[in-house]
Amino acid sequence: SVREGKVGRHEARDGATLAAAEVGIANTYWIADSDDRQATLVRCVSRCVARDGKIKQARWDFGDGLSATGNEVEHVFFRLGEPKVTLTVTDDKGRTDSVTLTPRIFQVDVVQQAFEFGNREQYAKAAADYDVAKMQRDDLRMYAAFWRDLEDAKQEVRAARAFVERFGDDAGAGTLAGSAAEAALKPQAYDPKAAADLLNKALDQSSEPRQKILLTLRLGHVTAWDLGQYDAAAAHFAKARQLLAKRRNEKAEALDHAALIGLGDVALLQGKLDEARKHYQQAEAGAKEDEPKRLARRGGYPYTIDDLLGRDQYDKAIEVLDEWEADFPTEKLDGLTLFLRGKTRFIQHPGEQALQYLTLSAQVAPRGLHVAEALWLRANCLLALDRPAQALEAFKRVQSDFTYTQYAIEAEAKIRQCQAKLQ
Fold first, then answer.
1. How far, in Å, CA of 345 to CA of 341, rounded?
2. Which residues contact 312 (CB under 8 A, 6 or more apart)?
3. Taking phi first (over 0 means left), then psi (-120 to 50 degrees means alpha), and beta for anything else, what does residue 70 get?
4. Nearest CA to 135 among 154, 117, 161?
5. Measured between alpha carbons, how far is 261 from 280 in angstroms, rounded to an integer?
6. What is the pTM of this model?
7. SS3 helix, strand, coil % of the chain, rounded to 5?
8. Which helix (H) or strand (E) holds 49?
9. H or E stretch at 259
């Protein structure tokens, strides 16, 4: 009768130690917004034996610059094709042997064979400690995209910084740095120094003119809004305008528009409202759209923001606010866009970013209709940041200045909470 045969033991014909292994694809993971869009988890098992001794070490080299040790290991490949996985074993008498296997990794959408799909936690655990100093260029690029997909800002910044330092001449280095800088500025992982450092490194390495301008503008924004270094920020925006003066086309005009707004922001943050208005008006003067269309579009922004906040689409709300302030920068001086940005950030995470926008929105337009809610949210933000003395003063102001509002009524309990923290 037909019987199933299985390998019971591997033995070397001519040696005392034999390297034998099993290497197979465990599952795949789809990475959003990347070129190949696929990471692949490969499981490697050592079946090595020593005839008259014991196996002391099993070392795996995965053909992508990375390695691991252990009888059973998992490795995530950020590439397609046929990588060469080499197992080298050493026994307790110093004898070694090696074997190379080649798993075949294809894009899952062009293969008929059924594939299992891995989960985020499994892949994050397997790839968390990769040595970014040893990863190859395209693997490292995909590695950064992988962490962006998982919304892990620290890991994305780590990968992007390594890419910029090692492959700064790559055409995509600036884009990678910009994306990672944005991740470092998200409320849940707010680290503006890391963002500025990454942008500076990318700027030093970049040789492509337009990319240098984009990085300079982004660095100016971070330096002004997140680090409070106003002279340095103004210098970045002025430098961008100098570089743009040599380029005359629509794209250059759009970037010059952004630089003018940046200079206005620097003045706004310093309380120089007339100077800010001058820069904002100069930026708006370049608009080519018909005025009726512009005004109609402007009228729709508040309703869109309100709808997005009602549906908990906070990142999209920030995108619309970016568009609103780019089209109508002078409206920052009315405080409403600053308030809505601060409110959105507060809902996401009551941290430093929310506090900055809420405070500024009340300062630039102290009689605005939004001020009562802005100061209420600001006081709650201070409390969430564990600054009870400042929060107490803020809640008392809400109670005294907005007597007939719901905020004044609710402030009493908050005041007692702050006093308890201070005792």
1. 6
2. none
3. left
4. 161
5. 6
6. 0.81
7. 60, 15, 30
8. strand 49-50
9. helix 250-269
